[in-house]
Prior knowledge:
Layout: H1 3-28, H2 33-56, H3 69-74, E1 96-103, E2 118-124, E3 133-138, E4 146-153, E5 156-162, H4 195-202, E6 209-212, E7 218-221, H5 246-256, H6 267-274, H7 276-280, H8 285-298
Antiparallel strand pairs: 1-5, 2-3, 3-4, 4-5, 6-7
Helix pairs in contact: 1-2, 2-6
The chain binds a DNA duplex through strand 2.
Amino acid sequence: xxxxxxxxxxxxxxxxxxxxxxxxxxxxxxxxxxxxxxxxxxxxxxxxxxxxxxxxxxxxxxxxxxxxxxxxxxxxxxxxxxxxxxxxxxxxxxxxxxxxxxxxxxxxxxxxxxxxxxxxxxxxxxxxxxxxxxxxxxxxxxxxxxxxxxxxxxxxxxxxxxxxxxxxxxxxxxxxxxxxxxxxxxxxxxxxxxxxxxxxxxxxxxxxxxxxxxxxxxxxxxxxxxxxxxxxxxxxxxxxxxxxxxxxxxxxxxxxxxxxxxxxxxxxxxxxxxxxxxxxxxxxxxxxxxxxxxxxxxx
DNA sequence: CCTATTTGACCACC
DNA sequence: GGTGGTCAAATAGG
Length: 299
């Protein structure tokens, strides 16, 4: 797709711009150790993201799904209307590799529109679920990955990545936009933490619950009272759907997992919630609150 | 006119 | 047979 290039360019610009903004904020927050750490993380993430985009040279299509081969078959290259009907099948266990439960609260900041292009290709009422499940996929790269969104509640939705989630490095993919349905007040997609953070956060169970899926995916639940900075989301057009080769992805995931989430919406959210430093600062619910406030104050 | 969303139906897996 | 995932025609919106 030609759009990929533009998309990349925007992303790089956005990341750099963000880095610049963070730097400026850092200057203003030098007195605060917490702010310092957080901002530094953000800055690094932004620049890393930019570098990755540039380095990847816009070869998103390269990505191949290591996670589930069948996925490739499921989505014939012929496109959406392709007649290759090899598919329509859910081969065996087309497992959703990473699962992310996102809970944004009462529709707090409505920055649900992460700027990514999610295409909804289906909706289904799920047995036992109070809300229908929506199925989304990236508009830009259908083959590589899909996201399944599940709404189990008005304030919760899950993003499950099928195959290898290839959007990383802060570029993390976004959670699908909230369904338009009224009963569905979609909260802003929230970033999740890595498994390690899951442990750290376990102490915060009262407020946060973390479930780790077998495949390394994880599910976090954030209290509806939870709110994240709407912030920087001024730059929404940054599409972070970068697709790196799977091997790349794995490594990155290993190295950056503390900062990366498979389903982040904006890099902003990612850097904020995915940032280990921000989480490292957390020592308890109280601190969480203060930290959130702190972060909010930053933006 | 093009693109995205909706929605019913189809199909495979359990 | 039930259920979940996907397809694709119809529809809406820009």
